Amino acid sequence: MARRKIVAGNWKMNMTPSEAVKLVAELKDLVVSDSVDVVYCVPAIDIVPVVEAVKGTNVQVGAENLYIEDKGAYTGEISADMLVDAGVKYVVIGHSERREYFGETDEFLNKKVKKAIEKGLTPILCCGETLEQREMGVTMDWIRLQIKSDLAGVAAADVANLVIAYEPIWAIGTGKTATSDQAQEVCKGIRDCIAEMYDAATAEAVRIQYGGSVNAGNAAELFAKPDIDGGLVGGASLKADFGKIVNY
Hints:
This protein is of the alpha/beta class and 248 residues long.
């Protein structure tokens, strides 16, 4: 059975609550699709108004982060239970910005993945290499290490239902995009890694996105590749072009 495409917008630290509601209204008719899952991954403060704003549409809401504990003295953090109660379905885990700016390790991200799954959230697990790592020829070594570490101890059935986003760090917000062949090569490598860790059926089921300057001009070529099941979209998710990407 063919994997269903999934296009998720990662808003990052953009959009006040009022701006978010306005954007959702502007995009509502543009992102309608019977064949693609559409997700807005929004800042925590935008979650409640955006969940309300997308009611009756084909859009689901994701969070950009969560914490590994259910409750307690963790000022500024947000729990999986809070996200679920607010209507969130997906959560981005391990984005390169979280790894780099906030020091999130693979051990910590593994706990996040397990917590999300425990609470019924679908992780969008991010991985990717720096330009230096690509030029050194260690791209797949690095990404395999990330995947194996972040999914350690996670059951095959849960892996089959999550989303993995390959985002070459050198292509995020730079305007540079991996060629469709480069993106396909790594996404297939990720699928092969899952097959080694689990089995062929799990590898065939898991959805793998490409992220890194995805736009209306390159989405169709990227998404046509056999191991690329959609995109994790940054800047282009904040404008009407997002509809063109969804309906590539």
